[in-house]
From TrEMBL:
It comes from the Bacteria. The lineage of its organism: Bacteria, Bacillati, Actinomycetota, Actinomycetes, Micrococcales. Pfam families: Cupin_7. This is ChrR-like cupin domain-containing protein. InterPro entries: ChrR-like_cupin_dom (IPR025979), RmlC-like_jellyroll (IPR014710), RmlC_Cupin_sf (IPR011051). Residues 8-110 form the ChrR-like cupin domain. It comes from Georgenia thermotolerans.
Length: 142
């Protein structure tokens, strides 16, 4: 699916399945740009789920669609908030006390970390392509 220079596309997110990224955490891949390494996903974190510690390699922007919580480094967040996480930011585990749905736009990967600070895995365009609908796995302008 490529963007036309004169138009755009509409992605019907309600019709997309949530794909399990981790226990209690589902994602919908909305955009992958292999040229720049940027990507956009929706994330649904169920009550009781945990986002492991991670480091941003590129700035991330997050819009909270539903829910609220506390991020140790960024602070409290709620429905309607917009969160900016800078390149190089390292984040502690995030524990979800209620369901949270968010859209995340990233300029680059997120490196998930082991207890000793070493990288466990990299969430990037290549990794996310396995969760994407086939038409999203190629290069997309955005």
């Amino acid at each position: 699916m490529e963007l036309d220079k004169d138009g755009g596309i509409v992605i019907a997110t309600d019709g997309m399945p949530w794909r399990e990224l981790a226990p209690g955490v589902g994602i919908k891949v909305l955009r992958l740009d292999r040229e720049t390494g940027a990507w956009t996903i929706m994330i649904r974190s169920e009550k009781g789920s945990v986002l492991p510690p991670h480091r941003h390699i590129g700035m991330s922007q997050i819009y909270i669609i539903k829910g609220a919580g506390r991020h140790e480094q960024a602070g409290d967040f709620k429905t309607g908030d917009y969160v900016i996480e800078p390149d190089g930011a390292v984040h502690s585990p995030l524990f979800f006390e209620e369901e949270v749905i968010q859209i995340m736009m990233a300029d680059g990967p997120s490196a998930f970390l082991n207890e000793d600070g070493s990288e466990s895995f990299l969430m990037d365009v290549n990794m996310l392509s396995q969760f994407a609908d086939p038409e999203l796995t190629g290069d997309r302008a955005g």
